[in-house]
Design goal:
10 helices, Ura-DNA_glyco_family4, UDG_Type-4/5, 44% helix, Uracil-DNA Glycosylase, subunit E, disordered N terminus, 6-stranded mixed β-sheet, iron-sulfur, alpha/beta, transferase
Length: 248
């Protein structure tokens, strides 16, 4: 057993090691404020699990528009269709009220496998989600703004984002997520219709107005690929996920 010097041990050994892996070291004084965040996580986690059970009974994958999926798969509106191996539509829960996580564009592994966040970035995203009580990514719907890989993993161009954005908006309209997590500047700008940096956008709750006039909470955070290059920023992503899970 790990010797963690707290009067009340809020974490299992596995959770402690997982948090340490993503950059949260609970053995240092500066991280003691994470305890309050974790109490919030534990409190809301039970409500989240109960909600998912009810939603899974009322909804199933057949509710997700097959015509939209077909349109995305067959899209040839920009030059990315010429170099793609797979169109990455998205994966995970299509139950109404699930979380929706939106990245920027597929990378090499995503293009090969046809699923979002399939490489090292995906592994880090999985670890981060587990740290706040989302045991499996299948509990969320995960997609990208741009559905095809830009050559050489370059950033998608403005015109490519604009061609794909209607698909993303329709996915949001159909899925009716309870909240949206956007990862990376391109995703944030596409959803919030601005040009602000991640530093300017993260740390507070934004709202996306859906077609049926619902205000969907939007939380902005760093893309896992960025966090792999700048691991010292992982604690900021932890803060963002704590904010997301506390928003109703």
């Amino acid at each position: 057993m790990l010797n963690i010097p707290f009067k009340k041990k809020l974490f299992s050994d596995a959770q402690y090691l997982l948090l340490k892996e993503i950059g949260i070291n609970l053995l240092t004084n500066k991280d003691l404020n994470c305890l309050n965040k974790r109490e919030i996580v534990n409190f809301i986690k039970e409500d989240l699990l109960i909600k998912n059970v009810h939603q899974s009974n009322e909804n199933n994958d057949g509710d997700f528009s097959q015509s939209l999926k077909s349109n995305i798969l067959n899209c040839k509106s920009c030059s990315l269709c010429n170099s793609r191996k797979n169109v990455v539509v998205g994966s995970g829960s299509t139950s109404i009220g699930s979380w929706m996580i939106i990245g920027e564009a597929p990378g090499e592994q995503e293009d090969l496998k046809g699923m979002p966040f399939a490489g090292k970035s995906g592994n880090l995203l999985d670890e981060m989600l587990r740290s706040v009580g989302i045991i499996d990514r299948s509990e969320c719907f995960i997609t990208n703004v741009v559905k095809c890989r830009p050559p050489g993993n370059r950033n998608p161009r403005t015109e490519e984002v604009e061609e794909c954005r209607p698909f993303l908006l329709e996915q949001i309209n159909l899925l009716k997520p309870s909240k949206i997590i956007v990862l990376g500047k391109i995703a944030a700008n596409a959803i919030l219709s601005n040009k602000n940096s991640i530093g300017e956008l993260r740390g507070r709750v934004h709202y996306f107005i859906s077609k049926d006039s619902r205000r969907i909470p939007v939380i902005v955070s760093y893309h896992p690929a960025y966090l792999l290059r700048r691991p010292e920023e992982k604690h900021l992503a932890w803060d963002d996920l704590c904010l997301a899970i506390s928003v109703h």
